[in-house]
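CORE FACILITY INTAKE
Project code: CF-77B
Contact: R.S. (postdoc)
Sample description: multi-component assembly, two entities in total
Requested service: structural model of the whole complex
Turnaround: standard
Below are the sequence entries exactly as provided by the requester. Do not edit them.
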Amino acid sequence: MREAHNLSGDAAMQHLDEMTCLLYIERQLDRVHAQEVSAHTQDCAACRTLLRALERESRLLTRAMLEEEDALPARLARFQERAGRSMQWIWTVAFGLAATGVYALYTTYIGPLQQQLEEAGLGGSSLLSLLIFQGAFWKGWQSMIALLEVVALVTLAGFAVAFFRKRVRRGSALALVLAGFCAALLLQPVSAFASEIRKAESVGVASDETIKGDIFLFGNRVRIDGTVDGDVFLFGQNANVTGHVKGDVIAFAQILDVNGQVDGNIRAFTNTLTIRGTVGKNVLTFDELVNVESSGKIGGSLTLFVKTLNLEGNLGKDLLMFGEHLNLSGKVEGAIRMKGDLLTINSSAQVAGPIHFEGNKEPEVSPQAKLASPVDYHKMQHKPHYMEGHYYVWQVIWLAAFVLFGLVLFQLMPQFTKEAVANAERYGASFGLGVLVFFGIPIAAVIACVTVVGLFVGISTFFIWYASLYYAQLVVGALVGQSLMGRTSETWPLIGRMVVGIVIVRLATVIPAVGGWIKFAVIVWGLGATSLALYNRFQPTIANTPSTPYTPPPLPPNTTVGGMQPA
Amino acid sequence: MSAPGKTEPTEAITRARTGDADAWGVLYREYASAIFRFCRRALPTREDAEDATMDIFAKLMRDNKLLQYDQSRSFSAWLYKVAANHCWDVLRRRKTRQDKETEDLENVPLEHPDPNQLDKLIEQRTSEEVRRALDKLGARARMALVMRYYSDMSYDEIADALGVRRAFVGVVLLRARHELRQALGQGGALAAGGTS
């Protein structure tokens, strides 16, 4: 406590300074100092008077400010009604636009795609399963679908919590989502991973051997002569299936020969695939060359991303091909839909369904070929896509989807988003890290996938990376919006700036010739900013202990030493 | 504003947090007058106060700032804090704020004014005269007094709103009182802290 100089008449006594007196009547002194003041005022009339005067001054101030009743001005009285209406209008428009965008996306794009996929034997029971081609590549997708549905629900729950809960702590919504993700991961059925694994230079299943369940085979030469009751996963240079596989065959190999019997599907990522045996269901492949020889039979559909297909055997359902050349000599029970360079239909060919061909050259059709209908040929158009009207319709739809995506993410992770936007201003660091993450994460994901044990982790990582490409554009959009409309630390104004910014960014990315590069730069930039924000989150924070001057703690509520003393 | 002891409209607050326009109407009718009076005290003109009141509620509704409100605490206190921050921002943007460095704040004279003279001054002045004197104060001084003696904000809240350290809130308030006494016309010696 500080004491001031003397007053006349009390020559021997040191008086309290006004600051101390003010803090005393405002109960801002700690107990010890308050007791000292209290004791002092017992003996000092001048200080008692000062305390009383200060307290009266406080009361006068409060009375003066409370006394005058300013009536609410008319325009303020009208304001509430107007504000309420404007809010409803904004929400109605926002959700209306979002719903329209989603509906348009589904009916124009996803619906027809789903139909095409179902025609190709890749039926899906739900939107999520459709998006990841249910059962197309890997049986484990079934588990992935369940997981994604759980994640979607948890994400929605996190969004709801972030939206409705009071004072959401920093990152708690994100933590909730991640916790849900981890919980879902732990709840995964272990059966999907309980399989036999064999690894050797030359590996396989002997002819007198029967494998109960799935098997993973790694080696330069992989050979299956025996019987496998479940699925076969092949990773090798040369693979040969001469035995009997009752499940699916999923192959990553340079050459795959199927001479035996596969009751399920074949999903192949190979250089050359040759089918001489029988495939009970569908074949989906990414190859350079596919041969279905005359003895080869496929019960279901054949879907290919291939350079050349020689089809001499029998195909039970439809053929969907994206590639260069189809050389057809065999029998197709369903329809053919092809987009490529050249279609050759030889004299021995039989096609029960319609043939749609979009290519560069007229199809070469033998007059002896037995076709249900003439080839429906469309010459491939090579005019720039931005010359077409629907391109712009799609741009608008994508823009609506972006805004919706951003709305959800910015609400879900407001604090993280603000940090990411702030980090985007560190241009050099953002670009540098962005390049690293852009190329590094997919490579890491592929490596994780190849190690099989990390298949789930790898695919999940890839999904997160892919989603972050969109998030990156939103972050840059928000920064652009801020540069135009000014900085903000609030969430909704930031979302507004994001909407303005993303419109500008999307417009820039559709500029012919340079648009692609702009998009790449934006993605790299935003990805780097997001990664920086994430990196900073994991940095340990050191508690800041400012060297504040002495601050008297407030008195306990039941203290008796503060307040005015009787004069 | 809710009178002391009066129950706050918790149900309306809860519903307003979900964006219920009717609930916002309830809150507005309940609190708009008090916030307007607060702004009227803190800002130079009546028009400023009207604009500020509208801006405060518009921002609350548009940004759904109610999500930041901790329902275990007093709603009116929280609302005053929001209003104080807004008014201080308004003053800052206009550069009418009389910013003084912290060091300057520390140089307030720690004197003992003549208690009898101060007591007499307080006794002689009416509420009307005090209100007129308040209008003559600098932005920081007026803001500090309004926050403390109109809306009963704590030292921590005042420090937060004014952007000063908590330890200097007392200094700001004391300096404001000195300015007020000076504006009341007879506080020269008192404000300077001199003794007679």
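Facility notes:
- Confidence is low (pLDDT under 50) at residues 1-5, 96-103, 187-196 of chain B.
- Chain B has eleven helices and no strands.
Invoice: internal transfer
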